[in-house]
Amino acid sequence: MNNSALIAINLLVCIVLSPVSKADIIQHSTNHAIKMSSFNLSHQKWKNRVLLVFAPSIDNHTYQQQMQLLQEHNSGFADRDLVLVQVLSTDESYANKQPIDESSAAKLRDRFEVDKESFRVILVGKDGGMKRSYAKPVQATAIFEEIDAMPMRQQEMQEQGRQ
């Protein structure tokens, strides 16, 4: 199989398995690819809930507190189809640990009216609507309780119980 076919297969797997769409590939002279990704909230609709964490930078104390509170709750995120998106003003932003481009981050800031110097945590439901907004760090368990009280999540849990 030639290099182009391997790259195409790899990209297809990434696109299928990732909540982030691949917008661009930049080839380095060393033949390593850097994936530039875009994140569009509307692509998550009816598939995933989204937890947006906005902060000025990775060094922001409040951001660091929030990330510590979310750490070690990966199974809770997966159980609830919850995608974590970190939107940072001065550092790279991420969706499920994959870098997203500045344009995607700026669109999220604009949509939720969060300025570059603010910290905010926003929970978006599978219907695409904002469910909760937090101005201070919030426990992962509190977010999970909020989700578990939603009618759609109640239905998901009932369906999981039948399997």
Automatic annotation (TrEMBL):
Keywords: Signal. Residues 41-156 form the DUF4174 domain. Residues 1-23 form the signal peptide. GO terms for cellular component: basement membrane. It comes from the Bacteria. It comes from Nostoc edaphicum CCNP1411. This is DUF4174 domain-containing protein. One of its GO terms (biological process) is positive regulation of cell-substrate adhesion.
